[in-house]
Amino acid sequence: MRLRVVVSGVNAQSQNFEERTETVEVSKYGATINLCQDLRVGALLSLERPDADRASKFRVVYQNPPDAQHSHRETGIEFIGVDSFWGLQFPPDRSPWN
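Now predict its structure.
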């Protein structure tokens, strides 16, 4: 699901940044986004959804090298805490014991 977001934080060069992008995938745990910024795993980010007037904190869990065509880096992020940032209803977790 693609949603427009504004991402801000501190990049790997210790510089503050703000970047407009969109999600590639979303889940109840976080999202995959494409960023031009080089980030460190564990870096804290703020995401805003201008369309829904929502903001939340996330943590970087991985970042791929930039793609050759657009210089975007696929970046995996997770919520810090539980949040309804996406405004979506996700199915409950399935236990392997059921």
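The beta strands are 4-10, 16-26, 30-35, 44-49, 54-63, 73-79.
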